[in-house]
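Hey, can you fold this one?
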Amino acid sequence: MTAIPLRLGADCGPFQTLTRFRSRKGHATLGVFAAILLGFCTPVQGAEKDLVTAGEFTRIYDPSVGEDQTWYINDHTFVCGPDGVWHLFGITHPDPANPAEERVFAHATADALLRVPWVKRPFALTYAPAPPWNETHLWAPYVIRNKGTYYMFYCAGDSDHARYKIHLATSTDLVTWRRHPGNPVVVDGYDARDPFVMRLGQKWLLYYTANSKPTGGNHVVACVTSTDLVTWGDRRVVYTDPEIGTFGGPTESPFVVQRGKSFYLFMGPRPSYDGTDVFVSHDPFSWKIQDKVGHIQAHAAEVVRDKDGKWYVSRAGWGERGVFLAPLYWHDGEDDGTTNMLIPDGGIPMPSR
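Sure. Predicted structure:
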């Protein structure tokens, strides 16, 4: 089911009720916004408060090329190698969408971020259903580099939705990936998934989507921390949405960008499948629904910086036939501020010293 949105403006009044249907990776969710009070009313796109906007999207990669049927890319990640070659990894499957059968990761490369088209490569990883891995699918990879090793975090699923697993695989060449013996690195529910990792000070932060209880409840963005990228703990909820459910929900694909003293949280689908909202906070462990400062017409949006320092945001999803990029514009006056999204320098598009 697709969302039937009711856009609420900042002046919507203290009491509103919204019921909407949302589709997520194959599952339908009924969420009820009940008694949305004062601060829960958020500005519509284009309001003066918008600090983040996007330009026109251009398709850079179509996984259907050379295939007998159309394929899609869903949640994905970009990383620049030490040779300056860009790599794209992502969920992939032939149309129509079948999330439970998404069992391989797409891999494509390009010598320039905006090169069209990217070159299709063999699948980067195939699910491992047998022990000790017990993977049921492969969802939402995210890759970082640290001390010459690439770390790929991804959702490996589980037969128990209250104990979904986030796994780790490593590589030194972005081609051959080996699962870490310490897997799973995170276990949570409902359907804990969509990991994003960044460094802040002396710690690594891993954000992911989950629920207020492993068996269901409010859709949330959770965060755990680590000093070695393998052992994670100190779980906390950094965003709680009014919508209640199990499958799906509006807190998927979390992506955090630091700019100066501000931390921007991208997540969706909001209010429908092809939409991402952006929220801002001065605390990387706390965002509120009234903190919305932008909306981007994109599903599974990822932020990436090119070698010239320019910012881009991506779009993908079911029926889209690939991955798109658009210029990302900031209106916060923090172009020279501290950021976790460094200009690629020898293949390091984010802090990974």
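Confidence is low (pLDDT under 50) at residues 1-47, 346-353. Let me know if you want another pass with a different chain boundary.
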